[in-house]
Amino acid sequence: MRKLLLLLLTVIASNGYAEPIPGDDILAFVRTKLPDDPLKLTGSLMVRTRNGFTQVNLPVEIELDWGAATPTATYRIDQESLTITWKNDVPNYAFSNPKNTPTSGILGTGITWADLSFSVLWWPNSKLVDEEKKLNRPSYVVDVPVPDSKNSMRLWVEKNMGMLLEARTYDPKGKELRKLEISSIKKMDGMWVAKNLELRDRISGSKTILEITELEWKHPKATAEAFDPAESVNRLTFDLYRQISGREGNLFLSPYSISSALAMVYGGARGETAEQMNDTLYFGGPGATHPAFSFLRQTLNRVPEQQQVQLCVANSLWPQTGYAFLPDYLAMTKEFYGSQIEAVDFKADTEAARTTINGWVAKKTQDKIQNLIPAGLLDPTTRLVLANAIYFKGNWAQPFKKERTRAMPFTVKPGTEVEVPTMMQTGDFKLAHAEGLQALELPYAGGDLSMLVLLPSDKDGLSALEKTLAPEWIEGLDFNDHEVMVQLPKFKIDWKLELDKTLAGMGMPLAFSDRADFSGMSGSEALSIGVVIHQAFVEVNEEGTEAAAATAVGMRATSMPPMFVANHPFLFLIRENTTGTILFIGRVANPAGPAEAGAGS
Fold it and tell me: Of all residues in the chain, what percent carry a pLDDT higher than 70?
C-alpha cells in the first residue's frame, strides 16, 4: 500500500492524535506510517560553504522495504553504506565502514547517519516538551537524548500528518549546534517526498543539502498516480502564458483562480466535453480532482493563521432563480470548493444580477477587482455564473527602505528607456543562475509565500525566456544563499482578459459549442460556457505586494556581491511554498506604463 512519504522514513498520514501523548509514543506513531511497498530514492548530498560555493557533491541511493518479513533500509553515500534491519521494532545497524556508528558524520559532509536514516525515531526516553506551529502547522515538540552523548535533539513533529519538519541538536548547556529542516516538498510518482533537506552548521556556517531527484517503485502498480492539484495549476500556468504572451505590454493573471473556477465547471461536464477539459486543464478525473482542489483551497486558506500575510480564496455560484440545477452538482461545489450559492434572476433583471456578482467579487478582493463582469456581457439566456476570487497582501520578509528608492532608467526595449522609481537593498537572498537569466527569490513575512523574479541576461531576452517556460524548468533552478544587491522597480498592473477563444484553442472547444455536454449540472436544457473572464491586480512597493484576481464563468443555454538589477523587462511569479502552487504570474514590460491593461480572448 502506498502512503504519503516525507523524505526517507516519515510519512504524511491523514489521522493523528488529539491529546498530548508520551514522546516515545509520538515517534512510534510516525514509524507506523511508513510505506509498505519497496521503493528506491536517488539524489545527491552537497556541502556548500558560507559564500555559496559547492565543496562536496556525493551520489545518494536509498532503498526502503518496510513491508518485508524483515523490514530493511539501505543508505549508500558514495562508497559508504548503512543497512538497517528491524526485528520487533528494534533496529540493527550494519555499516560498510566498521568505525561508523549511527551518530558518525558522513564523509566530512556534516550530516550524520542518524540524520540521513532518521534513526532518532527509535531512540528511547523522548519527552513531549511543548506544542507550537512550525511551517504554519500545529506540531509536537519532542526532546530526544542522543545515545552515548550528553547532547540532545529537539524534534518538531506535525500533529495531524506525522511529518518530521525540523530537528535541532543542542549541547549539554543548551547551545544550538546544528539545525536540520525540510525546505522543499515535491510529489514524485504519487508520493509526497521531502525533495530538499538542509542542515546548517552554526560554527562553520556551511550548509549541507540532501536533494532527492528520483523515486522508483520496485513493484509498480497499475493504478493511476495520485492527482497533484499544484502540478495541474502550474502546468496550466505556462500553457496559458504562452498563449497570451504575444500581446504587448505588462501582463498579470492568477492561474490558480482560472483553474479553480474551471474545476467547478468540470464537475458538471460529461462525455467528450469532460475529456477535453480534463486533458486541457491537466485534471485527474472527477474522483481525484475535486477532493484535491478542496485540500489545496484549505491549505491556502490556512496560511493567514500565522497572521503574517493576508490570503483569501473564495468560490461562488450564481444560478438562475427556479432553474433545475441538479442537487448533487450544487452539493459537490459546496463540499469541495466551499462555494457560496445564491440564486439571482438573469431573465427578469440581468443588470441587478451582474451588480450583485460584481459586488461579491469586490468584497472578496478588498475592492481591488471592480466591475469584473462588464455591462452587456450577461443576458437573459445566462443560467449560471461561477466565480473564484483570490486576494493576497504580504509584506516582504526584508522590506525595502523608502528613502533608498530613487528614479532609475528602465530599458523598455533597446534604444528606449524610461525613468521609474526603483527600490534598492542589500541582503541575504536565494539567487539562481541559468542559461540566459538570473532568478531571485523574495520571501514574504512568515515564509509561506515568495515572489520569484526571472530576469533575462539580455535586455531584449524576455521573448526567448517566455518560449522556454515550463514547470520542470522552474523546479530545476538551483537557488543558493547569497548576499545580493537588489534593484527592483515599483509597479502596479490591473489586467483583464476574456479566455473563451484561448481555452477553446488549447483543446476544449466542445465546452463552448452547441454540442457541449454539461448534463451533470442540469437535467433539463443543454448548457455551454458562454464566457470566461479574468481580471487581476498587483501592486509591488517597498513594504511588499498586494495582489488580487477573479474569474467568472458564465453558462448559457446553448447558443558586488552578486547584483540583481531589474532594469529591463522581466517575469515574476508569486507561489505558495509548501505545495509549490503558482498563485500569480506576471510580466513587467514597462513599470511606467499604464496601471490598467486589457486584452481580448
Answer: 87
How do the domains of the chain map onto residue ranges? 4-217, 229-394+492-559, 397-489
**What nine digits make up the cell of 574?**
508569486
pLDDT of residue 102 exceeding 80, the answer is: yes
Cα 379 to its chain centre, rounded Å, is 38
Closest alpha carbon to 262 in 14, 499, 12, 514: 499
Please tell me the CATH superfamily of domain 397-489, with its number.
Alpha-1-antitrypsin, domain 1 (2.30.39.10)
**Cβ distance 394 to 545 under 8 Å?**
yes
Helix (H, G, I), strand (E, B) or coil at 418: strand
What is the pTM (predicted TM-score) of this model?
A: 0.63
pLDDT of 120 strictly over 70: yes
Query: CA of 422: how far to CAs of 177, 408, 539, 561, 593, in Å?
Result: 40, 6, 14, 19, 14
User: What whole-number distance in Å separates Cα of residue 247 and Cα of residue 17?
Assistant: 53
Most confident of the following: 3-17, 158-172, 330-344: 330-344
pLDDT at 36 over 70: yes
Report domain 229-394+492-559's class: alpha beta
| pLDDT tens-digit map of 141-151 | 999 998 888 99
How far is residue 166's CA from residue 420's CA, in Å, rounded to a whole number? Answer: 43
Query: CB-based burial of residue 568 (10 Å sphere; 0-12 exposed, 13-18 middle, 19+ buried)?
Result: buried
Instruction: Answer whether CATH 2.60.40.10 is correct for domain 4-217.
Output: no
Q: How many helices (H) and strands (E) does the chain have?
A: 11, 30
- Cβ atoms of 393 and 310 closer than 8 Å: yes
For residues 217 and 160, give the distance between their C-alpha atoms in angstroms, rounded to a whole number: 26
Alpha helices for 438-557 (secondary structure H): 462-468, 471-475, 500-506
* The domains spanning 229-394+492-559 and 397-489 adopt the same CATH topology: no
User: How far is residue 406's CA from residue 422's CA, in Å, rounded to a whole number?
Assistant: 5
d(CA 355, CA 362): 10
d(CA 492, CA 586): 11
